[in-house]
# Entry
Amino acid sequence: MNFRTELKNLLVIIKGLDKKVVIVFISVAVLQTISWYYTSGRFYQTAISESPLVSPETASPEAELSRFIYWFLGDFGLLFLIPAFIIKFFFKEKLSQYGLRKGDYTFGLKASGFALVLMLVIVWFISALSSFSESYPTLSSARDDWNMFFLFEAALLLYMLAWEFIWRGFMLFGLEEKFNYYTVLVQMLPFVILHNGKPVLETFGAILGALMLGVLALRTRSLYYGIIIHFSTLFSIDAISILRYRTGEYGTGLNSILNIIRNL
# Structure
């Protein structure tokens, strides 16, 4: 084997690659790696927190909230602002080409409404499982403080905007020209992998969720409806879990709904 010849051939192959596709893949890999190691709640707890040896479970409510805000705002910068910068100044394209527009709002709103009703029904039943309801909200102190809950959800909304943008905006639309509809499958893989460690039903659900949200984004040419569905689903999971926790009601029938309402 001639090393120089092999290197020369490799360089020829690299020069022939689609530069935009390469930038999308590499930037997503780099940004997600930075996110995992440096803007996560875990990094905040060990490197930034005033009490790094205190576990999240025993931290004060304020310290626990600070950890999540650091994570959500950090990822908003990494997964939204930086890809938006790349689109504007490297690709010289409009952000609207990557889903930041209303698109086919008639179809989008109908699809969102249908999905939300369906997800509310699903969430209602799976939240009755103790293994599921005990995991939410991830900010455990929000169970006893509605102000804490709404601050957490507001920060979560920014995070969801960034999360949808990196996968169903930057990656999906950035690779669409090269891979056509296969780009839905491409963005599904990292999305599902990043759900590993969550409750098993949520992780399996992420497979279908990623496919549906990817198809919806391409169909409507917009991210907004995916954000509505994704955030509203998480909000309902947290809210219903809190209501069950506060009222001690874990049934699934109509009487359970009435009991929750009566005991609010």
Summary: The mean pLDDT is 90. Residues 146-179 form the longest helix (34 residues). Residues 38 and 47 are 9 Å apart (CA to CA).
